[in-house]
Amino acid sequence: MHTLDGSVVRDQGVTAPLGFRAAGMAAGIKASGRPDLALVFNEGPDYTAAGVFTRNKVKAAPVQWSQQVLTTGRLRAVVLNSGGANACTGPDGFGDTHATAEAVASALSNWGTETGAIEVAVCSTGLIGDRLPMDKLLPGVTAIVRDMAGGLSGGTDAAHAIMTTDTVPKQVAVHHTAGWNVGGMAKGAGMLAPSLATMLVVITTDAKVDAAALDSALRAATARTFDRLDVDGSCSTNDTVLLLSSGASDIEPDADAFAAAVFAACDDLAEQLMADAEGATKRILVTVTGAHSDDDAVTVARTVARDSLVKTALFGSDPNWGRVLAAVGMAPVELDPDAITIDFNGHVVSRNGCGVAGAREVDLSGTDIVVTVDLAVGSGRATIRTTDLSHGYVEENSAYSS
Amino acid sequence: MHTLDGSVVRDQGVTAPLGFRAAGMAAGIKASGRPDLALVFNEGPDYTAAGVFTRNKVKAAPVQWSQQVLTTGRLRAVVLNSGGANACTGPDGFGDTHATAEAVASALSNWGTETGAIEVAVCSTGLIGDRLPMDKLLPGVTAIVRDMAGGLSGGTDAAHAIMTTDTVPKQVAVHHTAGWNVGGMAKGAGMLAPSLATMLVVITTDAKVDAAALDSALRAATARTFDRLDVDGSCSTNDTVLLLSSGASDIEPDADAFAAAVFAACDDLAEQLMADAEGATKRILVTVTGAHSDDDAVTVARTVARDSLVKTALFGSDPNWGRVLAAVGMAPVELDPDAITIDFNGHVVSRNGCGVAGAREVDLSGTDIVVTVDLAVGSGRATIRTTDLSHGYVEENSAYSS
């Protein structure tokens, strides 16, 4: 991985790069009256774009639409709503997404930028199964195009408008020393969790990068960041990560440097998503080393990170390494149970498959817990970010339909 | 599946068949002083036996021992302890298991039945990672052989002594009209959950059945009962299911009738395990129909049964069918999202991938919830038993090392 040559800041988002405007507003989609509609607009001169989408076979209408749109490798705008996922809504729901893209294209054309619906990606998040209130959404689209602002405030407004159970907006900007920039915003509380907890991410850049290079940088970055954030093993019907380039800096970046900047932006947003996960009281890194391959390491780390008994033990600050070892033993990879070493926060708690003296006294009372599992059969390694399984998680996901 | 020709009762256990004695006692392994040692003894004349064990690659010492013993297809006795899993304890822990089997063999030989350690299976359950207090366990073994009783009380004492977080002992007996019997006991609170929640099952019969037929009946029964009980997706280091035949009825059963009786005993014990699962407030059956194959149906049902968002919604009595559909979409099988029908307690809530009117008003406030998912692409079907994800589950698994 190329080292990042630049700085990462969190108080700037999608409008940090040149050539982007954004806005956020309350269109009345949410009954609460909170902001629920966002727009990210690319002023050009380039309009290259790439996207990655949920692997769930049940895909929401906006995902089906945006996947089609992205086959062109080109985007002029992204419209995002909270307050409804528009998932499992059938052909009528797909018609609503199409109508939303048409409305954005029409409003942008009226505003002076000739735009087609095929240049507009749509993202939605909220409860699965209900139709969107189009009587609120379509007038909102007309209004939000008028509200679009350059500068940083438009990006911040957009980051607020996509929040659901998020407690804070999530933004990031990377300023590369060569003069080009990457910006981004994300929502999601609980990684890849259906309904309310969908993950939506929009990344922007003013570097001049063609669609194929955007696609490869985005796939490489998401595979090592969002794909390795695993709060509850669920994967939403609506998860979407988009990357848009305006080329407005007029600088063609080194490919490795660009990939490193996109990775840094995604990595920082993934960190922010973990920290704000539904009901989490612990931020947990599960690192697996010594696997036969990096893929094996991911598999083992994910198995540990998803284990309810590990997650409840860590909620209780209990250094219960036996549950970690038992979870490792269920991972579908080749391993030698008698060679495994487990470490909590830098203290070895189990070596060669047996506990070590003092293991039950390791202090896990802090917010951050690092679990390291050395399989000692190879050199593959990977880290998964996760959280604990707390009363708050149960409360948030049982107390109301979400 | 052959229909069961006989009766199933729950107040009798491993001593219901002829030719078995059992006992349970407090040997001082548990700090609480509660019963923690059990013995099941086969008086013969036959000693055929079979076993199935955890699929976890991290196997406790007693599992490693009992797997070796079972290669002979013969067992004279099973000794079981709660209060310690003897898992992840290395060669010394294996030595403890071996010493336990030797002590049982020696005590039985002194009592008048010449027995070798190779005829004694060992099962342990409790916290992973600690050595067993052999100074308590070995004298206990000598004492329990003296305590062995025929009749039903010995079986009931044994069923009590293997309990950990179980709130009730679990026993079953099947009396076949042809004159032979099957009996059984189980412990486990939370299916296949490491440490405290290990599942241990001993099934006995007085039917004359050779080891190969025992093995095939046991594997067929466990595949459709214990393997389809999935409380939290975890699989213990110690899970063990044993089947012993005394042949004392002197009746050779019809193979199908015997398989049906073993299935009925396992199915009833699985039902009892689900009802007593840690922190559960709901008993949930997830049935998948219309899959390409029964295996696909199991995969989909298991994916739904393990989904934390589905389990928390059902804890909240929330008919959130969108979460079920999203979970189905993550199952690694071929399916058509637009053909799926979902039913809660007999009410269709989603048809062809869309919600139906009134779906959000279905009453799930009762203890039993039946979720049926029709994939409509084939004729495969399967049912998984599970429970909700409750505050009680989090409490029980976080509040102390277990």
Helix-strand makeup class of chain A: alpha+beta
- Radius of gyration of chain A over all CA atoms, rounded: 22 Å
CATH fold-level label of the largest domain in chain A: L-amino peptidase D-ALA esterase/amidase
Overall pLDDT of chain A: 91
Q: Number of helical runs of chain A?
A: 10
The coarse silhouette of chain A is: globular
Strand order of the largest sheet of chain A: 1-7-8-9-10-4
Largest sheet of chain A: 6 strands, mixed
Strand and helix order of chain A? EEEEHEHEHHEEEHEHEHHHEEEEEH
How many strands appear in the DSSP assignment of chain A? 16
* Estimated helix fraction of chain A: 25-40%
Strand content of chain A: 15-25%
CA(first)-CA(last) distance of chain A: 39 Å
At the fourth level of CATH, the homologous superfamily of the largest domain in chain A is L-amino peptidase D-ALA esterase/amidase
Multimerization state: homodimer
Q: State the name of the first-level CATH class of the largest domain in chain A.
A: Alpha Beta
Low-pLDDT stretches of chain A are: 191-196
Main location (chains A, B): cytoplasm
Subunit structure (chains A, B): Heterotetramer of two alpha and two beta chains.
Pathway (chains A, B): Amino-acid biosynthesis; L-arginine biosynthesis; N(2)-acetyl-L-ornithine from L-glutamate: step 1/4; Amino-acid biosynthesis; L-arginine biosynthesis; L-ornithine and N-acetyl-L-glutamate from L-glutamate and N(2)-acetyl-L-ornithine (cyclic): step 1/1
Function (chains A, B): Catalyzes two activities which are involved in the cyclic version of arginine biosynthesis: the synthesis of N-acetylglutamate from glutamate and acetyl-CoA as the acetyl donor, and of ornithine by transacetylation between N(2)-acetylornithine and glutamate.
